[in-house]
């Protein structure tokens, strides 16, 4: 039975069962926030504010006085009081009340289990023939990418429901800007941006026509054009650009604060700068004159020297993206602590102002920073997960290799569909002599194999190479656009 079902499917079902049962007790997402390395700031009580202001705590009016005098005036204190917030490590009970905590916990844990299944599948394919089975790890990676987009959509819906409306305008502006940039990128020739979209689309359309004729549609032709497909792809890019607008703006703010927070640690500052510029490196890796042409045929005087083969360059490019994503994930704690320090930073700024402020406003401002911790964490982690898992899907479906071995991407496979001989269910007798009908499992497996063969005949690795290379590059480009605008906004516009 194990041979018929497949080892990968058994491991996937086991991982899904473990994730469902272990998440309430052992969660990586919960450990990431509640391992004692992050500190939140407690809001001061009214008694503490009164003591710092040098006044007595006003007694609470009775219910009769409130009915007679109406609402009493809120307690106010001078803004220049010597207020220092108290630190406290984030506990599990503190994290459970945060906004979007359940969505954050489920997504991070799902990404961790998806990565584990992917690593197991990669090791499993080193033993068996990859052509005989479907790479289930790639399916988990695709599901992770879709879940990331779904969570970003939920966060963007939170901004659209805001009463102020400024967040809605920012998302729409970045969406239209992304649409314009995507349409410009899609017309760039393959000599400059080597996504492989043109060969991929040609392979897709040719295989669709051949497949339709094999199914009996002799007069049928593909009712779409490359322009239509590219317009649809540009619309998807605009949607992704709108989703990544606020994550990029938030990354710029946390990056500046994290660099300032670690001013006495130059090595951490260097890692923070490398992490911030990682999407720029990813963009350059797909610019052919800068990356492949230079490393493939490096000019040495009047001659050129081949530093690495084409397959080796593809492998180095994949490894570079994975390493940069791991570096950014490793620096999550510094960025989150820099965000939590906004409470004390706001208090320090308040001390420089004149006038009075309501005590409830101080408490709300300090508490609000902590309440949005999981949202900020999602905005930091999700773009990295999108880039990482898109790269893993590109490696699997594009028939690349981690070792740099030469592999043909399978331009146009044989489209002759395998004919499966129908196997009639047989009659069997049990110990009592009663005949019964048993479904033939081999016939079911054969039909599934035929379906996967038909899908592979249309969606070739050449098509997946172009599609996921472009999507990986585009996610990095959106991060660069939004984060650089965020740097300009926080460094210049906020100070004026």
From TrEMBL:
Region feature (Disordered): 55-75
Membrane disposition: Multi-pass membrane protein
Compartment(s) where it occurs, according to its Swiss-Prot or TrEMBL record: Membrane
Family annotation (Pfam families): Tmemb_161AB
Signal peptide: 1-15
A Gene Ontology term for the protein's cellular component: membrane
InterPro entries (UniProt xref): Transmembrane_161A/B (IPR019395)
Domain of life: Eukaryota
Annotated keywords: Glycoprotein, Membrane, Signal, Transmembrane, Transmembrane helix
Transmembrane segment boundaries: 132-149, 170-188, 227-246, 267-287, 369-394, 462-489
Family affiliation: Belongs to the TMEM161 family.
Name under which the protein is recorded: Transmembrane protein 161A
High-level lineage: Eukaryota, Metazoa, Chordata, Craniata, Vertebrata
